């Protein structure tokens, strides 16, 4: 559809459709890997929160079940798109790295220079990591650093080690391996992918745009450029190559795109939904230009470090929440919520319902702290 053919679109409809597209209202997806497939990449530097992002969009998922799927290689975690971790489907990791790794290397260039991660050093570290992890061995980052030092690589610690490991991830050499308790490990990507089918789209960048729209629409090319870290020029060209497979409409001066087969949601129905979204969830993260508006008196100061999840009620952001897991005779999950003054009694009751859903997901006893205790 060309811009001349697009119709106007109102903000409430956009927000309602995004909730439905991301499976936060309507029918959930059957499994956590299916959620990763829909969203294409799920930001995951906050591991426990990323697992909940998958769980709240999939039917009958549990924290332990998703971790087991990850350990089995049904989900992979690596640096791609942007200089942070993402969860991604095994079939997609290769072509998405091919489409975005060079751009992430460019964004990392200053840190590479500062930490002495030049081409020769990165290549040497990669060779050593490949030998260390060969044969299904999985090591933590600290263990990798110790072994690199023992092999004679200078100062593989701190941020230098971080960027040596990230470089190897972006080159498609290593990837997060199975969990070791609460610790992440690294393994060889080729071994994690062994026997699994891999996608090979003819036009990876255009396919990345199309997939972003399928999992995040209605959305804009600007949203995609931020999400993928590709330049706006590259993003616009990619969008043009698959425009005939998507639909679009104007909201103000911005053109938004969506998948014609995406589930729909009426604003009236979406207004009934209340969701406890975790840190860096794909819903509030993906739309900096047109997102869920803050309620009057929202408790989060704009200049405060947002270490709280978002409370989305209907088509607005009404507050923040944070969880603490306490392991004892019976595991409990304690949730502190700070909500805007206008939050209704029904919405507060729905927060408690969502806390119960989170607790069931974690196999824990739910405890809500006093309202607005921070």
Written account of the structure:
With 374 residues, the chain is α+β, with helices and mostly antiparallel strands. Among the domains are: 28-192, no CATH class; 292-368, no CATH class. It contains 15 helices and twelve strands. The protein has helices at 11-21, 32-39, 47-55, 63-71, 90-115, 119-133, 141-150, 158-170, 189-192, 204-216, 221-228, 232-241, 267-270, 282-285, 345-362, and strands at residues 41-43, 76-79, 85-88, 174-176, 186-188, 247-251, 254-258, 274-277, 309-313, 316-326, 332-339, 365-368. A five-stranded mixed beta sheet has the order 8-9-10-11-12, covered by helices on one side. The protein has a three-stranded antiparallel beta sheet with strand order 1-3-2. Helix 10 (204-216) crosses helix 12 and helix 11 packs across helix 12.
């Amino acid at each position: 559809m060309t811009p001349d053919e697009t119709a106007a679109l109102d903000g409430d409809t956009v927000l309602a459709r995004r909730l439905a597209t991301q499976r936060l209202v309507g029918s959930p997806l059957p499994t956590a890997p299916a959620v990763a497939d829909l969203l294409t990449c799920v930001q995951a530097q906050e591991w426990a929160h990323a697992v909940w992002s998958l769980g709240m969009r999939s039917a009958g998922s549990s924290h332990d079940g998703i971790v087991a799927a990850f350990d089995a290689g049904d989900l992979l975690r690596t640096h791609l798109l942007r200089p942070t971790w993402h969860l991604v489907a095994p079939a997609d990791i290769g072509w998405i790295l091919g489409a975005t790794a060079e751009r992430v290397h460019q964004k990392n260039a200053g840190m590479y220079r500062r930490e002495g991660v030049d081409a020769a050093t990165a290549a040497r570290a990669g060779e050593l990591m490949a030998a260390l992890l060969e044969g299904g061995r999985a090591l933590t980052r600290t263990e990798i650093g110790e072994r690199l030092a023992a092999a004679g690589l200078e100062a593989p610690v701190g941020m230098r080690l971080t960027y040596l490991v990230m470089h190897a991830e972006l080159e498609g050499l290593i990837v997060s391996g199975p969990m070791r308790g609460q610790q992440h490990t690294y393994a060889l990507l080729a071994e994690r992918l062994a026997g699994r089918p891999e996608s090979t789209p003819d036009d990876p960048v255009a396919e990345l745009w199309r997939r972003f729209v399928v999992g995040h629409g209605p959305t804009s090319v600007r949203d995609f450029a931020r999400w993928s870290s590709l330049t706006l020029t590259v993003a616009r060209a990619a969008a043009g190559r698959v425009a005939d497979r998507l639909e679009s409409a104007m909201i103000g001066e911005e053109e938004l795109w969506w998948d014609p087969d995406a589930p729909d949601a009426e604003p009236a129905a979406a207004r009934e939904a209340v969701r406890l979204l975790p840190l860096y969830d794909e819903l509030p993260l993906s739309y900096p230009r047109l997102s869920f508006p803050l309620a009057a008196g929202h408790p989060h100061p704009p200049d405060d470090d947002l270490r709280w999840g978002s409370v989305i009620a209907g088509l607005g952001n009404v507050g923040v929440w944070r969880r603490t897991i306490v392991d004892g005779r019976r595991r409990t999950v304690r949730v502190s919520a700070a909500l805007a003054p206008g939050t209704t009694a029904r919405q507060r009751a729905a927060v408690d319902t969502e806390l119960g859903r989170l607790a069931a997901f974690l196999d824990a006893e739910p405890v809500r702290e006093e309202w607005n205790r921070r």
